[in-house]
Every structure is written in structure tokens, then in C-alpha cells.
Amino acid sequence: MYFPQFIPYSFIEKEASHVEGFSPELALVTVGGGKELEEKLVVRPTSETIVNHMFTQWIHSHRDLPLMINQWANVTRWEMRTKPFIRTLEFLWQEGHTAHATPEEAEKEAMQMIDVYTKFAYEEAAIPVIPGRKSRVETFAGANRTYTIEAMMGDRKALQAGTSHNLGQNFSRAFSTQFTDENGQRQHVWQTSWAISTRFVGGIIMTHGDDAGLMLPPRLASVQVVIVPIWKKANEKNEVLDAALSIKDILHSAGIKVKLDDSDQRTPGWKFNFWEMKGVPLRIEIGPRDVSSRSVVVSRRDIPGKPGKVFGISMEPSVLVPYVKEKLDEIQLSLLNKAISFRDSNIVDVTSYDELKEAISQGKWARGPWVGSDEDELKIKEETGATIRCFPFEQPQGPKMCLMTGSPAEEVAIFAKSY
Amino acid sequence: MYFPQFIPYSFIEKEASHVEGFSPELALVTVGGGKELEEKLVVRPTSETIVNHMFTQWIHSHRDLPLMINQWANVTRWEMRTKPFIRTLEFLWQEGHTAHATPEEAEKEAMQMIDVYTKFAYEEAAIPVIPGRKSRVETFAGANRTYTIEAMMGDRKALQAGTSHNLGQNFSRAFSTQFTDENGQRQHVWQTSWAISTRFVGGIIMTHGDDAGLMLPPRLASVQVVIVPIWKKANEKNEVLDAALSIKDILHSAGIKVKLDDSDQRTPGWKFNFWEMKGVPLRIEIGPRDVSSRSVVVSRRDIPGKPGKVFGISMEPSVLVPYVKEKLDEIQLSLLNKAISFRDSNIVDVTSYDELKEAISQGKWARGPWVGSDEDELKIKEETGATIRCFPFEQPQGPKMCLMTGSPAEEVAIFAKSY
């Protein structure tokens, strides 16, 4: 579906915590068609309000539920300090909005979507995110509960990479989004919303990239293999290009995303650097000697320089295609495992505020039992710059004591500095 | 690519005719993050200005040309009288922007894109558009020449369904988008832009739809075939649903977009009406008697009622699949041919202003020789409500005299009322 991006200001005001959370970040249209508008319009920072406005017209009976919609759109949140992909005034996302007859269904939906995002992060982007629940302080403005996936970037800052909200009846009560249940009673619907954005692109860059540029996980790379033909003398050119083209066709037919860089204007060395910077997982070089020996040289982007190079791989499709597919799978797995090691070696279990401060000052994430108050949490933020990223779903067993208050705690929280 | 949708007002002002054309239609953001902005921001009505702002940084040498980009985005043009899909304050489109080293290349690109749109309209949407050149009065604000595809709707109004602009050097001079040519000289680039929007959805609805609802061309229909199972007694239900499901699988495996409407809550008659309204090209009914005879009933959306129904089509995949594919092709062609007949029977060749007025007053399109002035054109608009839709690329041979001035004319123009 697609909803209008201009939302009447009065819509935003209907849900009290929503307007409180978003009003400092709004862009307002006040002039349209040369005239001052009677009611200013908010450029959509998120769409719960306008979606509910329509849901009231679409939902009548329990037979209309669940109602689940998805929108791909741009959203605007006024930012003073922007950072490419991570924090931009305008960004692109998908936002899902659902309405259910029961709170159990809504909770199940919110959990299912954070699980979808978790799987996407692990399996496609090779980003080992930690899924969990946000603290009250960090919960979405208008939600009862916010679930999040938190990713550790190369600089060890945390990135909130996707969220799913159980909105309870907050918006349905504000907008009177009601249905008639099976007993003929009018009820407010139970809702969720969830989103993942272009910020995730930044997450991929900052999880896998290195000083040479991007390093894309093969499953997401738009070019998985680049072929660089090499020739010195003019009479070598044709046979090298012919061989390169036939390799391209072989890989393409096998469903591999392949690019042949046959431009005359750049040297092979320039092309190597260029495609490394672009993060292409595998490079195939082919020169006159390779043509004679019916073989190629294959280089892995994730193992820089000589160690990542393998000479003399046969051009025969029955050898080359399985070899390339296997290498792409290896790279995908290797990126994930490297990111998991990096993540796990940078999370410190802490039992006291001093240990927490020590971990944070070393640039690490701190994980420790927590039943502190909102004020305690804000104090940590002020004193260390770290916030509770989430209460992870995966919790250690056994008795725990709050690192701040010493009271018995049921859960550990993860603290980190974040983007 | 994706460009920011907020454009500094000063960008819009740089190209004189662009700001003149667009300023009455702008939405302006004047407040961001709670503060009055120093420079107001225009919500993108089109992106030539911000694209050129970036092109100046991306284009240096003739080796950087041609530079061709495409963006899928929302755009905003303030409209007093909106009409769903056709004229909305916000709409979605694709916009292409190109920069070239020579005027010939730019002209070729602009022509190529209007040709792409023409083919899409004919071959996918079954809309027999008339491609041609806009008059000076109707040319895009900032273009040297605008090419258009004009479609005749069911009410015989014209719809401008896509445009391609040769921008010359208007924007490159305004923004100093320059390159160093092969002789080391600095030159301004030659540019084009082109777009097709959600308005086209309205074009499909209003070209093919009837009083029963949508009628979608099979190539664009998201559901090409709907299967409606029919049973009366409970003991019939299972065998009918089993057969319906197996037909669904057969069609789906053959690459046909098929939907089985097996809901219990609605009657077959209700489902017939519902899927007709949704414009599904083919309906397959299957009841207990059909199951026994291993056959189905197939109905065409484009031939309403009994005449469009064929009984006793065998369920055997080797019969059913080719039959359904053939019918879908027939419907696609039939919709196009029907629209062509309708269009051609509603275009009148005129040789005088009186004949033009007569044709327009009958709700038809008038086609006649034209070398009138801009003022003549505006007079026609005022007196008849019709505008020049285009000078069609396909022109009649032989000498012509302007319907208005009587002077020798090289081209005929098409006049019509439009959306």
C-alpha cells in the first residue's frame, strides 16, 4: 500500500506520547500552492497515525481482522547531526502496520517480525545481530513494547538495525479503531508496527568493510564475481576477451551475478582496486597464459592480497561453476563468523557499575543484570555515553543481582554506545 | 539512485522558466526540528535541479558521459482539484535524467524513451497511445522540446500518460554542469529527463474499465485467473476443493498468476462480482458436475455474461494450460483492438476552426493542420476547452493548410479536452 506522506498535524497530536516523542523531529509544510495553509502538514516521520485514520474506515467486524499492510516509502526526521545511511534527515524504509482482535495475536506478530529481521540479518547480510527488548526509556513513542535487533559495527558502536513494536491499544484508542467481536461487542484493535530502513545499508558497510572499501556478503552483492581480462599486446586482446566473455556466459547461465570489466581505458591494477572498493566478493583474472592453460586466477575480497589468490582454476564449466559457488558460500559464512567472533570478543559480562564503566571506556559492550530505574538508566547514559541497547532474548540461567542496585534481577541488559 | 526530496528554494530559482512553471504548485517546508528555516525547502515536484547540483560534482570529462540515472520516488505538486490516480497532490513515478556530450545524443535519448513508453503502453497495458511532440505552450518548464504519449480515456478525454524532455543546455547553463571535451574545451552538457507515474494506473482503469469495475490487461494483471469452486452439499465440498486446488497447481506451475477463492463466507455469485470488479481477465468455475466430467467452465471478463462463458473445457493439463494461455493472449489483443477502434472512431480530421469546434463539442478529438501562434492556441483553449495534445509523429502526407490561419502547414496537431 501507499499512504500520503503529508499528515495533518492534528493526527500526530492524538496519541500523547507519540507527539511528545516526534515533535522535536518534524518537518512541517506550512505553504502549499502559494498560500499559507490553515492546518500545517507533517512530512511523515512514520505512519501509525495516518494508517489508523484509514483503518477506522476499513475495519468494522472481526472478519476484517487481522489487517496487515506493508508500505515502502521515504520518511523524514529532522536531524542536526547527520551521518550517511545511519542518521539522515530523509531515509527510505519498509513499514508494516497490523491490527488484530487480541493482544496475544499482536504480541505474536511483533515477535514474528523481529524474528524475520533477525534471520535476514544473519542469513543475507551476515550481520550477527542481537535481538531483544528495548528498555522503557528506549521504547518507541506510542508503543507498549519495542523489540530490536542490535548490531556491532567495526568501531564497536551499536547500531539499532530494525525494530518491531507492540502498540497495544494506544493508537486504536486515540483514533477509535474499533471492531465488532463475535459476541457483537465493540472492541479496540490491538496493533503492531515494524520497520527496517536504508540504515541497514550503513550496517552492512560498517560491519564488513575495511580500509580498501566495501566488502559485500555474496547473497546481497549485486555483482558477485567480476572478471578482469589482462592483455599487453594488441594480438593478445581478442583471445583474452573471447575467453573472458565465455566465462561470463558460463557463470551467468549458472545464476551467478557476474560483471565483465572489459573497458580499454583503465589498467588491470586500477580495476582491481575499483572492484575491491565496490566490495565484489570474487574476482577472476584472465591473461594470455591463462587462456593457453585453460585456467583462471580467482581472488577473494575477504582475504586481501596474495593469500586470497588461487591460481590455475580450470575454465571448464563443470569445474569452474561449482568452485565459484562454493567460494561464494565460504565467503558468506566467513563474513558471518568473523563478525560473530568480533562481536563476542567485544562483549564483557559485568556485575557492577564500575565494571560497566570500565568496559564502556574500553569501547566494548557491557552485559549485566539490570532492574534499575529509568533514572538509573539515564544516569548511566550521562556518565558513560552508553544506553541499554536491549534485554536480549537469549538470557543466562541462574540467579542474578542488578549491577546498579544489587537487587535480584531477572534479566541481563546490554549497554553500549550507539549511533 | 535516490536523491533528497527537499530541494533548497534557491535551486529551483536558478532556471528561469522552471521556477515560473513550478512555483504555483510547490509545497514548502518552512519549519524543521521546531525551528523556522533560514532557507525554505521545496518538496520535490521533479528533480532536474537537485540532479544537476550533483551532476556538477560527478561530471568532469567526456569520459564521464553519457551519465544516465533513474529514480523511483514520490513527488508533490499542489493541486486544487484532485482526481484519484490522475491528478493527486502527491504521486509516485520513475524519473530518468541523462547528460550527454552532444545535442544529437540528447535528442536520440529523449526520442528513445518516448518510444519505450509507447511500447509499454501498447504491449503491456493495451493502451494505444499517440506519441508526438508537445506545442511550445505545453512544453515542460525548462525543456526545449517535450515528447508525450497521449491516451484516449473511456470518456474520450485525453490523458498525458508519459513524457520525455529534451532539456538542451537549459539546466546545465543554470547549474554550470560542464565537461572537458576531447579537445580540452569546457562545454555544457546536453540533457534529457523523462517520467511515467501512477497516473498511468488511472489510464489503465479508464481505458479498459466498465460499469462492473476494472478490466485489467492480462500482462499486467496480478491475478490472471481466479478459480471459484461451487458446492451446495457438504459432501460435495471436498471433491470440488480438491479439483480446484489441483487446477490451481497446474496453472501456477505453467507460470500463470492464479488465485483460488476458497473462502466459506461468501457465495459464488458474490465472488463472481467481486473478481469482476477487480478486473481479473479469466474466471474458472468448478462444481460437482464438472468434477464428474473432468471439465470446467471458463468466463472472460472482457465479454460480460453468457457470451463470454465456455462450458466443458477439459481439466487435463495438456488441454487446459494451452487453452488458458491462448485466452489470455486473446484478451490482451482484444482489449488493445477495442481501444484502437474506440480511439480511431473518435478522432475527426478537421480543416477549419469551425470543424474543430464542432468535433470538440461532440466530445471528440480533432486532428488538423496547424501553424498557429501561441495566442491562437490559447484562444482555442479558452473558447473550446481543448488544447493541443501533440503533433503526432505519424503525419499524413501531402500539402496542408493551417486550420486557423490558412497558411501552409507542415504538420497536423491533435486537439482535445484533457485531464
From TrEMBL, chains A, B:
Keywords from the UniProt entry: Aminoacyl-tRNA synthetase, ATP-binding, Ligase, Nucleotide-binding
Biological processes, Gene Ontology terms: prolyl-tRNA aminoacylation
Keyword ATP-binding: yes
Superkingdom assignment: Eukaryota
Top-level class of the enzyme under EC nomenclature: ligase
E.C. designation(s): 6.1.1.15
Record bears the keyword Aminoacyl-tRNA synthetase: yes
Gene Ontology annotations for the cellular component aspect, listed alphabetically: aminoacyl-tRNA synthetase multienzyme complex; chloroplast stroma; mitochondrion
GO molecular function, one term: proline-tRNA ligase activity
Start and end residues of each Aminoacyl-transfer RNA synthetases class-II family profile domain: 1-217
Alphabetized Pfam families for the sequence: HGTP_anticodon, ProRS-C_1, tRNA-synt_2b
Database matches in PROSITE patterns: AA_TRNA_LIGASE_II (PS50862)
Stated name of the protein: proline--tRNA ligase
